[in-house]
Design brief:
Elements (H helix, E strand, L loop, with lengths): L5 E6 L2 H12 L2 E6 L3 E5 L5 E6 L26 E4 L3 H13 L5 E5 L5 E6 L5 E6 L10
Parallel strand pairs: 1-4, 5-8
Antiparallel strand pairs: 2-3, 3-4, 6-7, 7-8
Length: 140
């Protein structure tokens, strides 16, 4: 079996972004080189690498456009996080909104999967997905 082991993004403020992803997704830091990079995990054999790049500003995409048509899927760089229950999905969305983060969604996709989108504090696009079926079931 092969799986994706990590995703890496550039960040301008390493400490801020490390704290943000710890607070939002309950991640913890498994390794850090101060002022260089931090590796975070959810404990599910995943690594989310934050690579410090002073002055970096990602292109900020218009997330509202994805809500226009349920058949439209994102066509911009982003990463997604999967939650297992609709309650967790709703709680996370409400918690982010309470901090002042603009939420785009929820959206129901063609396969009935629910998702919402937001920008992290530096402008990276993030998707939160709540599948209504066995998301990782192998197609036969």
């Amino acid at each position: 079996m092969v799986c994706v082991s990590h995703v890496a993004i550039f960040v301008n403020n390493l400490d801020l972004m490390e704290r943000f992803y710890q607070a939002v997704f309950g991640m913890w830091t498994v390794w850090k080189a101060p002022n260089e990079k931090a590796y975070l995990t959810t404990g599910n054999r995943d690594i989310f690498a934050l690579l410090h790049k002073p002055g970096y500003r990602p292109r900020r995409y218009d997330l509202a456009g994805i809500l226009q048509d349920p058949r439209v899927t994102p066509n911009f760089p982003h990463f997604g996080a999967v939650v297992e229950t609709l309650d967790h999905f709703t709680e996370l969305m409400e918690r982010l909104e309470a901090t002042g983060i603009t939420i785009y969604g929820p959206k129901v996709s063609r396969d009935t999967t629910r998702s919402f989108y937001f920008h992290d504090p530096e402008g990276n696009a993030v998707q939160v997905v709540c599948p209504t079926h066995e998301y990782f079931q192998r197609s036969r």
